[in-house]
Amino acid sequence: MILKPYSRTLYDFYFFDLDGTLTDPGEGITASVRYALKKLGIDPPEKGALYDFIGPPLKESFSRYFPSDEEKQDLAVRFYREYFSVTGIFENAVYEGVPEALSRLRTSGKTLFVATSKPEKYAVEILRHFGLDEYFSSVFGATMDGTRSRKDDVISFALRTLGFSDGEKGRALMVGDRNYDVEGARKNGIRSAAVTYGYGSEAELLASSPDHLFARPDDW
């Protein structure tokens, strides 16, 4: 894989993933998963074994435990949200350097958006709680009913809603920590940058062939 040289002059529009890119949600997400599994009678694994839940749509992740039972998958998502909406949502922390990096991009004239597979209402609440909402022009996320949950669908919805032309797509960059972000960007005709400090392994990220790699927010 050959990475493209990165320069801020290449892009006018930045789309940021939330979990694993702007904030570290590991504690809240894994606690919510453990809560849901316990309510469904499953002895949950330790926190570290549940980090794969950070990134993909929840129902897709719960299908590993209930591969042929969509009703239980939906129930698991509901139980997850019981805990997450009250407690897990704030068991979270902003990565060091993120506010400064976002401020620098805004000051240099860039337009910033969030594109996340987390339900949009939760994303908005988290950004507001941590004081990051001021940097973003719009926030795009999943729907609560799951009709829009995959990252490529979220990015597609964002681009349609914003009315991006092909030329504007060429000046847009998706920044995220999982292969879903890179592949979702590619499907929608925009470039991608993978951050190596989040929850995607180096092997996963390199295999997805991002255009750029960022080791820390200061690289944006």
Descriptive notes:
The protein has 220 residues and is an alpha/beta fold. It has 2 domains: 8-24 and 92-219, Rossmann fold, CATH 3.40.50.1000; 26-90, Putative phosphatase, domain 2 (DNA polymerase, domain 1, Orthogonal Bundle), CATH 1.10.150. Helices cover 39% and strands 16% of the residues. It contains 9 helices and 8 strands. The chain has helices at 26-39, 58-62, 70-84, 98-107, 120-129, 151-162, 166-169, 179-187, 202-207, and strands at 13-16, 23-24, 93-94, 111-119, 138-142, 172-176, 191-195, 212-214. A 6-stranded parallel sheet has the order 5-4-1-6-7-8, sandwiched between helices. It has a two-stranded antiparallel sheet with strand order 2-3. Strand 7 (191-195), helix 9 (202-207) and strand 8 form a beta-alpha-beta unit. Helix 1 packs across helix 3 (70-84) and helix 6 (151-162) crosses helix 8. The radius of gyration is 17 Å and the shape is globular. The two termini are 20 Å apart. The mean pLDDT is 97.
Q: How are the SSEs placed, and which strands pair?
A:
Elements: E1 13-16, E2 23-24, H1 26-39, H2 58-62, H3 70-84, E3 93-94, H4 98-107, E4 111-119, H5 120-129, E5 138-142, H6 151-162, H7 166-169, E6 172-176, H8 179-187, E7 191-195, H9 202-207, E8 212-214
